[in-house]
Amino acid sequence: MSSPHTDSQFDNYRPNASSAKPVQVPVRRSKTGWLFIVLLLATAYLIEFEVRTSYYQSYFLHQYATKLTYKVRDYRSDAVIYPKYGPFDDRHGYSQLPQKIARLIERNYQITQQVAFSPMLMDYTNIGFFPPYHEKAQSGLMIKDCRDMTVFDFSYPKRVYQDQDKIPDQIINTLLFIENREMLSPEANYNPVVDWPRFVLAAASQVAGIFGADMSKAGGSTLATQIEKFRHSNHGLTLSIKDKLLQIGSAIVRVYQQGESTVGARQRIVQDYLNTVPLSSAPGFGEVHGIGDGLWAWFKTDFNQANQILLSRHTQQNAAERGKVFRQIVALMIAQRRPSYYLRQGHEDLESLVDSYLRLLGGDGLIETQLMVSALEQKLQFNSSKLATTNLANNKGVNAVRIRTAGMLGLSLFDLDRYDLSINSTFHGDLQQQVSDYLRSLAQVHSAERIGLLGERLLSAEQLDKVLYSFTLYESTDSANRVRIQTDSIDQPFDINEGSKLELGSTAKLRVLATYLDIIAELQQRFSAMTVADLRQVDVERKDHITRWVVDYLITTRDRNLTRMLDAALQREYSASPEERFFTGGGLHVFNNFNKKENSRVPTLYQALQESINLPFVRLMKDIVNYSSSYNSEGSVSQLLRNDKDPRREEYLKAFAKREGSSFVKRFYRKYRQLTPEQRLEVLFDSIQQQEHKLTAVYRYLKPYDSARELKAFLAERLPTKTFTDKQINVLYNKYGEEKFNLADQGYIARVHPLELWVLRYLNDYPETGLTQVLDDAQPQLQEVYRWLFRTRHQNARDVRIQVMLEVEAFLSIHQRWVRMGYPFEYMVPSLGSALGSSGDRPAALAELMGIIQNDGYRYPTVRIDELQFANETPYEVTLANNKQTVSRVMHQEVARALKRALANVVENGTARRLKGSLVDSNGQPIVMGGKTGTGDNRIATEIRNGRKVSSTAINRTATFVFYLGDHHFGTLTAFVPGEKADDFSFTSALPLQVLKGMMPILSPMINQQEQCQTGL
Questions:
Q1: Element spanning 826, H or E
Q2: b/e per residue 688-714 (b: at least 16 CB within 10 A)
Q3: 616-658 residue pLDDT tens
Q4: Cα 78 to Cα 86: distance, rounded to the nearest angstrom
Q5: d(Cα 714, Cα 720) in Å, to the nearest integer?
Q6: Which helix (H) or strand (E) holds 379?
Q7: Quick count: other Cβ atoms within 10 Å of Cβ 988?
Q8: Residue 981 gets which letter from DSSP?
Q9: Of 130, 696, 932, 1008, whose CB has the highest number of CB atoms within 10 Å?
Q10: % helix / strand / coil in the chain, to the nearest 5?
Q11: CA distance 667 to 349
């Protein structure tokens, strides 16, 4: 039965007040309802149309994306935002660029070009979206030489699809079937980023999860969003809904940036995915990115051959191979969902999934039935052998650039090679290769005969392949010394030129002579303004022969011209007699000349350099030590000695201790403050003569709480050729205990400055202390360290100890001079043997000294890297160039020119005369060259009698020539034999001279400016 108020549901219903039967009125339906239905249907159609065609969004998104631009500016830009994370951005270095730029600026590079974002791109990126640009399929370190020719190109990933047309259809169809089937839409403007059915289902599953409903999780990621995720999201993961929305938004803008049509963008998505999909880390390979590298790393399948066979027709002969390759590719596509599991452990599960997908692909007609059958017949065979690695150490110039760049940026070579970075180096690629090939050819008999390497003081045929050679050539330009060639014949990353400490023999005489002439110049400046009467009043210490000579020269000649004085200083005579025993390094030592015929000579220094005679330079070094002991400074130790009975001795002592001691505390503080505790100990122990009593004395002072067992381990590491019993260790341990000797005695035993020991221990105990506090705390030690000099009862014993202290302090002063002229080490041996090379050197450091001489006394920076360009053609592009430094004068011009003339004489008339006339200019005229030879026979003394080494073991043998060629080029050439086998060799510096002579035809085009680098490179 109907309700009496049924009609109340209509809008025009009005109740009837009377009881009479209501009159039936015709119903008039509302048009609003129909309009709503029509609107609903129209909206549904538009949504369906837009989802299917993306017609309207393509227009508006493209218009928006075209405003997200960036432009390279010729200046430093602040309008750029670098990514903070993302595997792709981390690997290419984009996310670390702010820190790397800062490091380079600290190392004297400046920004010359940098990208500037448009305001809209700045706002877009600030939200968190990833800047839209065409990302590189491959990138990596590229190094160019001074002619802008590529000499090194590390592309990563190594195996990629460079062209979309080269991807086999089977691979495209398989990828889209597994990951993103809607990508095949025929609509030109189709949005490939959002698969709406999958997206809605994924969203519903997330909402259900929030409310605790039991609903299976669904993934809504398309290929485009997956690429954004594993390239730019933190750790390559989606960690929140915000991450997913940023991935979707970034991908949508990226696909519409180039136009409303997405056909090309969809092809790039497929290509990018195949090239960069992460596939875990393979043993012996590292991180794997992309199908190409995946085939090689996991199955040892050649990428190019795999593509060729898939592109070919299916035949009975290639069926098995096509099936194997295709099965591997399908496996990699499936494995990307859980790569570490499927590729390293779950092989059986992966095989099962591959079979299922192969049947589905064949059933849907996406691959040929024959290919499906062949693939199902195969099994995955994972690679278990070690993969071959590329040898990157053959080109030493390239390796030097890589190592130096890695150091500047704080990277490993592995990470550096994967950076999106291009470097303009100073090397000349062709000449570098020619010299490298030449040096390697010297191991062959026919080459050695042609060059003239066989003979007395050279080599025998059996020795050729055991000698290693290192060569470096620099060009002096307007602002720097640029390395043009740096190579050696060692098939290892080790670099003799810069990575070694070698005894290079008589090349040290060049450092001694440069120090001597530098002292002459500073004394000339000190005394040249004095009258003869004033000069006669100068109080010169009896042993200070250099100052005495300068004063007498000025009195006698009254000539204040520095050039003539330097020439006269080189004509001073020194005995070559080996009969004298020298007290140096804490004991008596005897030195010999190379040629016994020289023993009776008294040559000038000019002649001694020409013929490389040893004893004159030992005696010259003794004079330099005496000068450096500050004999004429009031308050010096010498003054105290001469005033031993002076009642003011206590005041002298305090003044001397405070002034002199504080200067040494400052020096040692600066020497050690930047080092770690372990590095500090290593530097100090390396500087001590490797004898157990000296090492133990220092060890017990610096590590007083270490046990005897730890001392034994330390001595075993430092003295590997010696064996100590527990009894011997206990004797040493107790003898040199901290309570047995005071600080001054510990320093005397070890032949190091006591304050160096104190500062090092202080810094290790209080590493954060500043210099002011260190100086305050050092004051009691300063008085104690110098007071011991006057407590010894016997005058002779006291004088011996004073002499040791004076020599240590003198060599610290000499070391500072040497460092100013390029000496590379933190210490030098406090012995006159340093004049003959006992303090060691490096070929590169000798070349730097030669560069100072070549550049009239200016020390130019050595440059191997002129420019670094990061992230070329990306929103993060930035270029930094080597900033021209203000060069510093470290040597008087007159000193440099005097040395240059003396070195030319060595080639013209001395030990390097076999090079005379070997280099000519374009007119056939000889080019002036000069240099210094040196032979180092580095040995460990196993028996010493009366100061003479009577038994020894060879460590290595070297022969070096440091040279200049013409007015703009200089360098070094070293022959080197490592290890005990060096005992079998007797070559001298004649060997590198002959090698260099044979190299002249290769070098001549550069020296004569026929092979030129670009300006400024």
A1: none
A2: bbeebebbbbbbbbbbeeeeeeebbeb
A3: 999 999 999 999 886 444 445 555 555 556 555 566 556 666 7
A4: 22
A5: 10
A6: none
A7: 23
A8: G
A9: 932
A10: 50, 15, 35
A11: 67
